[in-house]
Amino acid sequence: MTSATPTVRPYAVVTGASSGIGLELAKQFAENGFDLLIAAENGGIAAVAAELQQTGATVETVIADLGTREGVELLWSSATRPVDAIALNAGIGSGGAFVETDLEKELQLVQLNVVGTMHLAKLALRQMVARGEGRVLFTSSIASTMPGPYEAVYGASKSFVQSLAEALRTEVADAGVTVTSLMPGPTGTNFFHRAGMDDTALGQSKKDDAATVAKQGFEALMSGEEKVVSGGVKSKLMAAANAVTPDALKAKGHAVQAKPGSGKD
């Protein structure tokens, strides 16, 4: 009598997994039968791995700055087997008037949100296309659908991510690989605090639940959808309105919400 061959769990990579949407995405993968390679810039990723392992998943970790070429290559070289799915989630924000904000911080934002995301996507898609299978999830944003005064560089970075995701989806469609973009609205994470936007109307507004956003993103990824506007009714209505509103009006509306000091006491 021969024993059954053990089932090999699919393998996923999640970036920015130490908190927020990235953490919740990692939970979704682990709870749905994936083993994981998770990455973040800080040692908090070890505690996340311990939590995820309680689901039965094998979880590997990498501490890396994905805003650098070396960090991206370290993460990719740490994958112990072919990648079935990858969530390109790592990113940072920056708020304030463009003429006053810190150049170095914004250059770091571009390196992480744009350059690092593109670099890792290229590595992942080359492998997936060669294998004829795979799933890629880009964390974009509703911010990609409008000009973003007082978040100008962040908004531009998400427009890049959204455009890249939609273009790559078409390029790899015949290769058995899907590309999905997750487009959250304001979400209950430490994003606005880290971006220096605590005193803005956006920073003080009611936020969508990060776990709900991640669940919707994971389900869209697994269904092979092109994109999903995640969160509650407010975020979905915002995205629908942005599709028909002139850019100049969207810019003025965003400025009111994102301008420093616009939050209520």
Plain-language structure description:
With 265 residues, this protein is α/β, with parallel strands linked by helices. The protein has a single domain (11-95, 109-258), classed as NAD(P)-binding Rossmann-like Domain (Rossmann fold, 3-Layer(aba) Sandwich). 46% of the residues lie in helices and 14% in strands. It is built from ten helices and seven strands. The protein has helices at 20-31, 45-53, 69-77, 103-131, 152-171, 191-194, 201-204, 210-223, 233-242, 247-258, and strands at residues 11-15, 35-40, 59-63, 85-88, 134-139, 177-184, 227-230. A seven-stranded parallel sheet has the order 3-2-1-4-5-6-7, sandwiched between helices. The model has no long low-confidence stretch (mean pLDDT 93).
Topology:
Blueprint: E1 11-15, H1 20-31, E2 35-40, H2 45-53, E3 59-63, H3 69-77, E4 85-88, H4 103-131, E5 134-139, H5 152-171, E6 177-184, H6 191-194, H7 201-204, H8 210-223, E7 227-230, H9 233-242, H10 247-258
Parallel strand pairs: 1-2, 1-4, 2-3, 4-5, 5-6, 6-7
